[in-house]
Task: inverse folding
């Protein structure tokens, strides 16, 4: 017994050291596909969230996954990058400068500015004035005017590194010979020079950065380190450090949150400077000799970026550290961890317990070697450490003492799964449920009760016992979900009965008091209000399986440890930040042991991994890790749209968009959704950063795209583009109205025209009928018949053949009259037949007293047309109105040409007129009017009466 | 009394004759040695054809050396390679360093000063801004300059072929000594 005791004592005294010191995780990024080094010298975050990297061969824009060289910067060595009112200004090593617009460099060519030395700093003031700090002095450019300030004008040195404007418009220039504080008022320049003699730690002022306090600037020198310049009092003071500055030339300074400052030096150091008091500080140094860090910057998600001689590196220093632990530490040996109230971290490797005093500058020391594998370590509020083993019972270590096995016999040799120490109770869960012990002030135990399946927990295996801040005991059970024991009664929830979820492995409480439970496969639940909500359902990736531990820090983040990755929940951004081995951070694997993590008194969470411990730090300022999206390219009909244009014509309806998602935390998980409002309100979910809309109808649209890393778009950032496509002319309202109007007018005119035509036709018909009737009437005129029959009688007596012919002709005449009288137009030939028949009758009566001369070509007779009875009527008129006698014969002359037919006769008016028949020239004229526009002409021509009828 | 006045004037004049504080100093003798320490080979060479001037009033300087004047290699072939392949001395016949001195040096007071020389180091046609520590020994009419610094071949675009990877170090140690005297008018 004593020998065992001595052995244990001996082993305890052996200080087995495991070296440890917390340092950030670092990841290197290659800037090009060939993985060749490219020296990066300047970094800037632009207003859209992109990271701009200035290198010796151009300016690149980084969105978290790809680098894009900005046009026009290819062969320039970037020596200055700054942001002024949302525009990025850039200066190069050959003296040229300009701004970035539309992803390309617009060099400013100012006549009178002939500088060839590197531009190291650019300051812009409203009113288009530019200050350039170069290696050959200070330049002021405004509206074509160039002013050059060098040592001749009072500058302490021509080599300028940085430029800043103070609030009261004084210009601060960091040079090789101190800080120049210049005021320009009126035409005079006042300059206050602060050098090493006035308190600056080094004359060479390589870097200046504004501190959080207004008017104070951090200054970094080439040797001698950091100083602070107060622009209000124009005085400098060096930063006092515990030891002299030994880290080399300062290349850049990053003023982080909470007064902390990061400094990178040329010798390869990354320094974390924590100011203490007014002008002294504590320095934490990390050494990266093969990454000569030139510049340092922090992005919106909290990552720290460093521009190195090889490219870009990312550090997790603001939110995640690692404590490398050397052999004999191996991840697979870790079985339990806990942290006591004095920030001493205990870790069990198989059956040995080690401890380390946090924050981890010291080494791990072995404390105890147990007889069996250690399964649980738990520290209570009184400073005691309880150890549960797999088969060797329960052990207790009083503060400052050593582990002693407790005399609890009830536990026997069963494996202990979890221990929770309350105020005066100790709960121990083993393979037969949970044993509740009364815990006295001196650490004595007395078994009070055994809780198990039978007593109401619902299961005999409880993987974790967790006491929340309100004193309630939560139990993660195998098969009965989560059970809460408070005030003597058990409470269950049936949310956990869904497939696979009722085995709960791990529990924790986050900073806002909500309980988290992790189940067997991968579901994570959060208890808010009165119900358990499945947080995991929103995540889309499936590589996270086998949840083993959840823990939470003091600022709201919750860590969920899986077999191959770790997710950290950011409550304000509403999703998890994902860490896995593919991120290049060196996070290869995590422990499979359940509930293997510890939390120190400030709330930082320690999780073991392959190389040691990961420290998830409290984040007093919660970074926004949501990704951003910008519309990078808009093409219309395959041609890029010039900036700002959003009105398109009717044929410009093939729109395509390319957008860019920016995420510096999980760019591999970017996914988007978009919709075109005005076309469809359905969201299209995609991983591809492009959208195409062919053949859009005219209208007004808004293209909206949102980005997320987990498929949950409730709080996503978005980008939108509003545009209109004009409708073609033939769709415009006024055009349609005009068309309709025209149609109406046309319809109206058509109807009216038709009406008129109908009217005219009716009138023609009427006229014709009337004429026909009248003509008939006239021809049946007894006078004519009387005369005709008289003539016939004479003929019968004289010449029987002629009489027959005469009768035939008379009957022809009447027959033709009957035949044609209701026609509008008849062929001239036919009218001629009628006329000949009529003439035969009349000539038979009048004999030589009536002479007709008619010379009408046959062709005309066949082709031309004329209203029926027109010629006959005219001849009849001629006979009626003129003397027809042997002494004064009537000569009727009929001629015709293409256009008209002409009937003329000499005027021999009768003394006694015959009765008017009522059909006259007027009838012919009105019949013609209905048929044609050509006029019937009649009148006296010399001694003749001439009537001209158009031939149709 | 007039004699005293005369002596006073003479002494004052002499004071100013002998005074060369704010003047131009020229390199009288100067040497540059460089060393390459690689796992398989040590190379060293030197040249005493260093030329340069220093303006003590303005605290500026300019030094130059002909590349072809380096001697002392392990063999002549090595010297040939040095000039033709690496330094390409037909294209870039000289290396120079011109710049200014940061610290204030009291050139009147004799003593040794450790100062930083900041300027452009031009080797193989590539200029790099360098800050080099220099030990400046001040004595009346005679300044000494001593400095040790490292030249990184990649900074000046001098490529080391893979075959000679372990025979040539990417960092060359350089040692400079010079004696400067007032420039002859």
Result:
């Amino acid at each position: 017994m004593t020998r065992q005791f001595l052995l244990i004592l001996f082993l305890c005294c052996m200080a087995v050291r495991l070296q440890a010191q917390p340092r950030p995780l670092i990841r290197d990024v290659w800037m090009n596909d060939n993985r060749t080094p490219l020296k990066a010298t300047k970094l800037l975050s632009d207003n859209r969230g992109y990271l701009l990297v200035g290198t010796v061969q151009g300016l690149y824009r980084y969105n978290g996954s790809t680098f894009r060289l900005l046009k026009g910067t290819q062969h320039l060595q970037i020596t200055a990058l700054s942001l002024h009112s949302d525009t990025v200004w850039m200066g190069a090593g050959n003296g040229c400068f300009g701004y970035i617009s539309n992803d390309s460099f617009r060099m400013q060519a100012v006549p009178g500015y002939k500088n060839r030395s590197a531009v190291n700093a650019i300051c812009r003031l409203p009113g288009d004035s530019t200050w350039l700090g170069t290696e050959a002095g200070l330049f002021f450019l405004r509206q074509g005017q160039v002013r050059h300030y060098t040592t001749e004008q009072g500058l302490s040195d021509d080599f300028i590194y940085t430029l800043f404007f103070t609030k009261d418009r004084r210009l601060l220039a960091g040079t090789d010979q101190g800080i120049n504080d210049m005021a320009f008022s009126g035409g005079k320049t006042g300059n206050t020079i602060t050098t090493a003699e006035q308190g600056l730690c080094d004359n060479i002022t390589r870097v200046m950065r504004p501190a959080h306090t207004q008017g104070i600037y951090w200054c970094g020198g080439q040797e001698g380190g950091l100083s602070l310049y107060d622009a209000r009092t124009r005085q400098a003071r060096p930063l006092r450090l515990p030891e002299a500055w030994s880290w080399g030339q300062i290349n850049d300074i990053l003023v982080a949150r909470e007064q902390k400052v990061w400094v990178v030096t040329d010798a390869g150091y990354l320094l974390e400077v924590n100011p203490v008091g007014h002008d002294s500080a504590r320095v934490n140094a990390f050494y990266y000799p093969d990454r000569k860090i030139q510049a340092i910057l922090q992005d919106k998600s909290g990552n720290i970026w460093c521009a190195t001689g090889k490219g870009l590196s990312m550090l997790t220093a603001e939110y995640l550290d690692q404590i490398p632990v050397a052999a004999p530490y191996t991840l697979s040996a870790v079985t339990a961890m806990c942290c006591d109230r004095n920030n001493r971290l205990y870790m069990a490797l198989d059956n040995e317990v080690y401890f380390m005093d946090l924050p981890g500058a010291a080494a791990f020391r072995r404390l105890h070697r147990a007889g069996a594998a250690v399964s649980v370590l738990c520290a209570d509020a009184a400073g005691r450490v309880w150890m549960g083993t797999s088969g060797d019972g329960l052990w207790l270590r009083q503060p400052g003492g050593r582990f002693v096995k407790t005399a609890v016999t009830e536990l026997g040799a069963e494996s202990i799964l979890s221990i929770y120490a309350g105020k005066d109770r100790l709960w121990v869960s083993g393979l037969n449920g949970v044993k509740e012990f009364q815990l006295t002030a001196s650490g004595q135990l007395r078994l009070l009760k055994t809780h198990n399946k039978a007593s109401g927990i619902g299961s005999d295996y409880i993987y974790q016992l967790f006491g929340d801040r309100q004193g309630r005991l939560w139990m993660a059970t195998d098969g009965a979900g989560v059970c809460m024991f408070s005030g003597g009664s058990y409470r269950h929830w049936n949310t956990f009965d869904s497939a696979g979820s009722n085995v709960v492995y791990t529990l924790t409480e986050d900073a806002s008091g909500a309980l988290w439970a992790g189940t067997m496969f991968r579901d994570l639940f959060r208890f808010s209000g009165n119900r358990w909500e499945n947080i995991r359902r929103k995540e889309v990736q499936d590589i996270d399986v086998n949840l083993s531990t959840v823990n939470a820090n003091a600022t709201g983040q919750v860590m969920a440890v899986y077999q191959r990755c770790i997710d950290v929940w950011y409550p304000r951004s509403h999703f998890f930040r994902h860490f896995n081995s593919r991120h290049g951070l060196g996070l290869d694997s995590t422990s499979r042991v359940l509930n293997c993590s510890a939390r120190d008194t400030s709330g930082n969470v320690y999780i073991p991994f392959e190389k040691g411990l990961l420290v998830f730090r409290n984040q007093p300022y919660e970074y926004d890790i949501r990704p951003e999206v910008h519309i990078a390219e808009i093409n219309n009909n395959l041609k890029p749209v010039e900036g700002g244009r959003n009105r398109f014509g009717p044929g410009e309806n093939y729109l395509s968009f390319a957008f860019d998602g920016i995420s510096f935390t999980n760019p591999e998980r970017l996914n988007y959704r978009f919709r075109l409002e005005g076309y469809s309100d359905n969201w299209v979910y995609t991983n591809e950063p492009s959208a195409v809309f062919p053949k859009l109808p005219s209208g007004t649209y808004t293209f909206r795209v949102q980005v997320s890393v987990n498929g949950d778009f409730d709080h996503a950032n978005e980008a939108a583009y509003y545009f209109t496509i004009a409708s073609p002319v033939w769709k415009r309202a006024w055009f349609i109205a005009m068309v309709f109007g025209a149609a109406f007018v046309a319809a109206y005119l058509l109807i009216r025209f038709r009406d008129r035509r109908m009217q005219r036709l009716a009138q023609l018909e009427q006229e014709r009928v009337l004429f026909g009737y009248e003509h008939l009437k006239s021809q049946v005129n007894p006078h004519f018949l009387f005369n005709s029959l008289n003539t016939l009688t004479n003929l019968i007596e004289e010449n029987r053949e002629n009489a027959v012919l005469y009768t035939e002709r008379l009957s022809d005449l009447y027959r033709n009259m009957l035949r044609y009288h209701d026609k509008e137009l008849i062929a001239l030939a036919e009218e001629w037949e009628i006329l000949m028949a009529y003439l035969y009758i009349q000539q038979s009566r009048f004999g030589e007293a009536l002479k007709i001369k008619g010379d009408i070509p046959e062709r005309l007779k066949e082709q031309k047309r004329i209203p029926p009875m027109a010629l006959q009527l005219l001849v009849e008129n001629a006979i009626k109105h003129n003397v027809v006698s042997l002494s004064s014969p009537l000569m009727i002359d009929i001629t015709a040409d293409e256009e008209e037919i002409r009937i003329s006769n000499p005027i021999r008016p009768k003394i006694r007129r015959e009765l008017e028949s009522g059909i006259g020239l007027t009838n012919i004229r009105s019949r013609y009017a209905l048929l044609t526009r050509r006029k019937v002409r009649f009148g006296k021509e010399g001694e003749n009466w001439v009537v001209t009828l158009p031939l149709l | 009394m007039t004699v005293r006045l005369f002596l006073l004037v003479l002494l004052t004049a002499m004071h100013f004759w002998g005074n060369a504080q704010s003047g131009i100093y020229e390199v009288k003798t100067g040497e540059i040695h460089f060393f390459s320490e690689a796992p398989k080979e040590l190379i060293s060479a030197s040249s005493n054809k260093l030329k340069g001037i220093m303006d003590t009033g303005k605290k500026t300087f300019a030094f130059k050396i002909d590349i072809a004047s380096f001697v002392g290699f392990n063999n002549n072939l090595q010297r040939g390679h040095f000039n033709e392949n690496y330094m390409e001395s037909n294209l870039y016949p000289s290396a120079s360093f011109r710049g200014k001195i940061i610290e204030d040096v009291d050139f009147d007071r004799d003593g040794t000063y450790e100062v930083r020389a900041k300027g452009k180091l031009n080797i193989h046609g590539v200029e790099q801004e360098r800050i080099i520590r220099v030990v400046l020994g001040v004595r009346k009419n005679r300044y000494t300059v001593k400095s040790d610094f490292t030249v990184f071949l990649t900074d000046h675009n001098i490529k080391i072929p893979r075959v000679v990877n372990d025979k040539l170090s990417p960092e060359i140690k350089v040692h400079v000594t010079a004696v400067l005297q007032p420039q002859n008018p």
Remarks:
- Residues 54 and 60 of chain B are 6 Å apart (CA to CA).
- Confidence is low (pLDDT under 50) at residues 13-20 of chain B.
- Chain B has two helices and nine strands.
- The longest strand of chain B covers residues 24-37.
